[in-house]
């Protein structure tokens, strides 16, 4: 506990899934957390759950604020950052977590699918970085954690253009990490493999035989299970904390070894 004491963190897409797990883990480590989420009601419910869970764990004074945010809109993200600053003070940590699956065949994909994917999965990350960087650069401290994917360096046919956007997230992480390293602002990424969230359930349910699709996913995993959101959150805590002061422009894979395996 207290690995993030006195820090203020904003997490996008924190209403559920990996983002909610990160917000909870951060709060348990002493950070004040801002849940910047498309659906305000979901974010408010998650914020209440986080405060209650911390209180039950004997952590006094946990603070979680929900702010309606659409990461595709730079003004909306700027607004969330202003709300965070007004409530808790300057931001120390940003986690760009909001993301959507857009899995298409390249030649039948609509222009709208292409734009939707990039608007959330890449523009959204840039909008977050651009909103917090001026403050972090001015103070000479900050940690940005971008949630990429193993799709950021591996390709599965039929998943276009999601991996293109996620490759971009790694490029953005590396470029900004180098750009602001002299100002002590670290920019890193996490590449999760299969993690059990609504996103993965939606994908299994979109398959002709969801149970078979679920089993096929498990069979592909070296550890014979998929990951839990908390397992990504623990890595985010580490990267956000003062335990990783010399880790920058880097990406940590959290996939149980799946992306190293050559044959399935
Ligand atoms: P979920 O779909 O469970 O959660 C994503 C959250 O982001 C939702 O609360 C969603 O809100 C929110 N969101 C979507 N669009 C926006 C937007 N425009 N502005 C603000 N918030 C938005 O996804 P996961 O938790 O599974 O995924 C989180 C991240 O991890 C994503 O970047 C994903 O690409 C990445 N990832 C996930 C993996 C997995 O296996 N689950 C594997 C690799 C990477 P709402 O519900 O209102 O739409």
Task: Please characterize this protein's 3D structure.
The chain is α/β, with parallel strands linked by helices and 264 residues long. It has a single domain, classed as NAD(P)-binding Rossmann-like Domain (Rossmann fold), CATH 3.40.50. The chain is 46% helix and 16% strand. The chain has eight helices and nine strands. The chain has helices at residues 17-28, 40-56, 74-88, 111-139, 162-180, 198-205, 210-219, 229-240; strands at 8-12, 32-37, 64-68, 93-96, 103-104, 142-147, 160-161, 185-192, 251-254. It has a seven-stranded parallel beta sheet with strand order 3-2-1-4-6-8-9, with helices on both faces. Helix 2 (40-56) links the parallel strand 2 and strand 3. Helix 1 (17-28) packs across helix 8 and helix 6 (198-205) crosses helix 7 (210-219). It is globular. The termini are far apart. Bound molecules: NADPH dihydro-nicotinamide-adenine-dinucleotide phosphate (NDP). NADPH dihydro-nicotinamide-adenine-dinucleotide phosphate is lined by residues 12-13, 15-19, 37-39, 42, 69-72, 97-100, 120, 124, 147, 149, 192, 194-195, 197-200.
């Amino acid at each position: 506990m207290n690995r993030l004491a006195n820090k203020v963190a904003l997490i996008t897409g924190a209403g559920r899934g990996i983002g909610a797990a990160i917000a909870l883990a951060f709060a348990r480590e002493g950070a004040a957390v801002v849940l910047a989420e498309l659906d305000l009601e979901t974010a408010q419910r998650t914020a209440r759950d986080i405060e209650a869970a911390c209180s039950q764990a004997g952590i006094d004074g946990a603070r979680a604020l929900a702010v309606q945010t659409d990461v595709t809109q730079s003004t909306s993200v700027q607004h969330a950052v202003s709300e965070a600053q007004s409530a808790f003070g300057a931001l120390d940590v940003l986690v760009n977590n909001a993301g959507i699956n857009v899995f298409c065949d390249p030649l039948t994909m609509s222009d709208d699918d292409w734009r939707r994917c990039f608007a959330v999965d890449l523009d959204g990350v840039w909008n977050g970085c651009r909103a917090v960087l001026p403050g972090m650069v001015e103070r000479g401290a900050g940690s940005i954690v971008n949630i990429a994917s193993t799709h950021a360096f591996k390709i599965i046919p039929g998943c276009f253009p999601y991996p293109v956007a996620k490759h971009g997230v790694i490029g953005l992480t590396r470029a900004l990490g180098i750009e602001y390293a002299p100002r002590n602002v670290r920019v890193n990424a996490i590449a999760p493999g299969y993690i059990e969230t609504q996103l993965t359930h939606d994908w299994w349910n979109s398959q002709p035989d969801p149970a078979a699709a679920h089993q096929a996913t498990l069979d592909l995993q070296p550890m014979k299970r998929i990951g839990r959101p908390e397992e990504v959150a623990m890595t985010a805590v580490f990267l956000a904390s003062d335990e990783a002061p010399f880790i920058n422009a880097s990406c940590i894979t959290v996939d149980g070894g799946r992306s190293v395996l050559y044959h399935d």
